[in-house]
Amino acid sequence: MFGWKAKRHLTRELEITPPSPEKNRHGIAIVACVKNEETYIEEWVRFHRAVGIRHFHIYDDGSTDATLQVLHDVLSPAELTVVPWKMRMMDSGSAEILNGQNIAFAHSILNFGGRYAWMAFIDVDEFLLPRQGRTLEEALQGAGGFPNISLPWHMFGHSGHLTRPPQPVCLSYTMRVSDPMRQNLDASNFKCIVDPAEVTGVSVHHFKTRSHGDITANDAGETFSRRKRKTSEFYSSKFIQLNHYYARSQQELREKVDRGWSFDGSSEKYKRKVLSTIQYIEDNVIEDRQMVDFVNENAIALHG
For the whole model, what pTM was predicted? Predict the structure, then answer.
């Protein structure tokens, strides 16, 4: 075991100076950190390209499978930027492990953010589903241009699958936690879509802007403080719903636990966290077929 794995994982908000907007900036970019996502990334890319994502900024944490080949096969050079990003950084004063994902997000805003009207920061098991309109740009109109939008996780469980189903992920899983706003373990959190030219503070699940500080909006444009966004009043999925396919099948969950997480010093601690989270989801599920209906109605091809 490398020495850094025994250290505590440190999450800090990073302060940045917003990038200058380029003259013809437009569209939405997705920023994601990946490692060995060959099995899932084609579907994820094809779906988000179909709903209007202009560019994918992929920070690759040393993938050893065909993740990068799949990306280059599906996306053109105009749609894809891959940044090699080994996420192993330690604070020299405290010897705590820094959150490499957080630093990647800040790097992407500073180096690429001036090109886009919006940047979304999600993982490969998360899908941005438009609920109004056909594209995410149309759906974002519901927020009225507010520069910092927080979307609550809609956490999906096994949906009865023991092994990996042959169908795409977003069509196979239709049972999710009933109340996305209920605070429980790791089953409740947010991901964000921001105007990069306004961002002054960066963390994985929350951003600050120069015009509004830590005030954030839901997808309907209703604004709340960072603390108040955890209340039930914040909830909305009228325009955009963030689906988080957390566990997938029982087989895939076991594989996820066996792989562990790079920033957790204890594999047993990580295992307990994952299993307790999926147990909470499975104990509190409702059916949600919004994604299935959207993909079918819009004839979105999830594989080549």
Answer: 0.93
Dist CA 148 CA 196 (whole Å): 9
- Output the 3-class SS for 225-254: CCCHHHCHHHCCCCCEEEEEECCCCHHHHH
Cα angle 255-12-127, degrees, rounded to a multiple of 5: 45
Residue 99: name the closest of 243, 262, 249 by CA.
262
Give just the sign of the alpha carbon dihedral 229, 235, 237, 238.
negative
Note the pLDDT tens digit of each residue in 174-227. 999 999 999 877 889 999 999 999 999 999 999 999 999 999 999 999 999 999
The predicted pLDDT at position 21 comes to 98
Phi/psi of residue 101, each to 5°? -65, -45
Q: Report how far apart, in Å, the C-alpha atoms of 288 and of each of 17, 140, 172, 179, 231 are.
A: 40, 21, 11, 12, 22
Residue whose structure tokens are 């990003």 = 85
Phi-psi region of 253 (alpha: psi -120 to 50; beta: other; left: phi over 0): alpha
Instruction: Name the nearest CA neighbour of 111 among 167, 57, 150, 179.
Output: 57
> How, if at all, do strands 97-98 and 190-194 pair?
unpaired
**HEC string of 10-78?**
ECCCEECCCCCCCCCCCCEEEEEEECCCCCCHHHHHHHHHHCCEEEEEEEECCCCCCHHHHHHHHCCCC
Tokens encoding 71: 């990306």
With beta carbons less than 8 A apart as the criterion, state whether 245 and 127 touch.
yes
Four-point Cα dihedral 137, 142, 144, 149, nearest 10: -80
